[in-house]
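Work Package 3 (structural annotation) set out to generate three-dimensional models for the target panel prioritized at the project kickoff. During this period the team completed the workflow that converts sequence records into discrete structure tokens, so that structures can be stored uniformly alongside our sequence database. As a representative example, we reproduce one entry of 399 residues exactly as it appears in the project archive.
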Amino acid sequence: MKRRIFLRAAAASGLALYSTRLWAVPGDTKLLVLMLRGAYDGLSLLVPHASPLYYERRPHIAIARPDPADPRSAIFLNADWALHPAVESTAHTFYRNRQLAFVPFSGSADTSRSHFQAQDLMELGRDPAGGLDYQSGWMSRLVSLVSGASGLGGIAFTNNLPLVFKGSVNIPNLNVKGKVARPAEGRQSELLESLYEGQKLQAVVQEGMETRRDAATELDKEMSDSARGAEHAGEFEKSARSIGRLMRERKGYSIGFADLGGWDTHVNQGASEGHLANNLARLGEGLTAFADTMGPMWDRTVVLVMSEFGRTFKENGSQGTDHGHGNTLWVLGGGVRGGKVAGRQAALNDNNLYQNRDLPVLNDYRAVTGSIIRRLYGLNTPQLQTVFPGVANADIELI
């Protein structure tokens, strides 16, 4: 049996995830926000397969157009969009069960392309034009509004209390992460140097290899710094089960935050296989593990997956991508009205790219998130403005 046929059969059988849609009262809900630190490439996850420009600008890393006979090709979603094959058995199952929606062209007002500035702005949840308060994150403001007699509370599954939970409310942080071993340098470098040993070009080759190592070290440091201590996606499945158990069993851990690093793919990003594909696969497995651990509570849970910005529409000379602007936000959960690509969209051509290099931001992440929490917790307009000051009302009707 072909792999895709098997997966489709599994989704239709008892292997499928919970799909009941019994939405809870505001006092009995779970919200998990997952930040992908380092700026993941949403254009590899949600593939604009109808755009010739996508394939022109990404000759080495574009995901192949949907082809049922090719397991390395993108998975067809609609006339415009397809999904990376690495998440076929995970995110695509959520999508087929109408428990996952994607919102492309999402992001914040930040245009600095600085990991740290963009992450700060996203966690603060404010319009930079209105001034930033680094002692007040948007999830802290949300907890302060909905806790009270309900007993709901927040929890950060991070090494240190993140900026998103800074504020007047006491929020615990609990590290549920494992350690990841650093991979050894490839054997190819050693073989190349030995090939030229004793030859006229030995010094030139050694100097070139040293330069390459120095550059790789700098890029590795940037990836590590941009992660801000977040665990690598490779360990997420184990952590996700721990997060699920804690959120399922404790009402005080109803509003959670977690983060994953390793998404800064400047070099050798890969296409259907490679570094990014591996990260996406582990991310999907972790989210599936979390949903499975939540059990029946999954029907009253919403997970938001976001990243500080997207990556360039065009691949760079190292077959990677650089810092961009708009990206794809995920909304998933047992009660989500999924199975669709939502929000404002635009044709992907030269005229619509931001600065002729990035996806534009057409869907403010605050407006998307605001529409979710408004329905989850029954917030009125003044309360929503407390969480996201100055945000425009928007309702993309995903729950």
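The first strand starts at residue 30 and ends at 36.
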